[in-house]
Amino acid sequence: MKSDDVSSSVLSMQPIDHQSVQEKVYERITDVLMRGGFQPGQKLSSRKLAASLGTSDMPVRAALGRLVAEGAVTQNANGTFTIPLISRKKFQDVMELRALLEGRATTAACGKISQKSLRDLKTFGKGLEEAIEKNDIDLYLDYNQRLKFSIYKHCDSEILFLHIRLLWLLAAPFLRHLNKDLSQMTYANFHDGAIAALIENRAEDAGAEIARDVHAGMVFLLKHGKFAEDV
Fold it and tell me: Which domain holds residue 54?
């Protein structure tokens, strides 16, 4: 093999590695966002995020640029980034569509979830109860996201899953307002009913319970959340 052939081979691998770093950074930031790690109206520093992730500024800005395109982040005139503070009407639209699509995804997932995954769902459900008892909003948001997406990933529809994910990117920062009275989630928690229905292969009931859960969260957040018109 000629030396220039080796050089070409090595060079051809570099963009793949670079893309891998960008993808990992995007996934990490998105994961934090979807677990309510950022608040509505919060300014994001690409340099601080890069320092936290142990990477350079460039892949972080690339990740934030993707989130801007998805509507989850806004870019200001000076080049900085902010988690958008949307209106009550837009939030209600997002949550109502979430209830519809997530109910459908749960119905579609029923019968396709392994016994191990069903046991995991029960563990996540207990984790939610523990978080409510401890009034731990971070723990609650973590288990809430893990439980729901552990269901939706079995819906066997990439398009449906993608749309649910995009809606979560818009709604998740507002879920942090649940800390206004996390104990109220005891009365608005329909996860146990959904899990029981999934175990018993009652697809329509499982979907209805998840839709009720999303709707109950919407009602609470419309009352206690802070939106664009409140600033």
Answer: 3-82
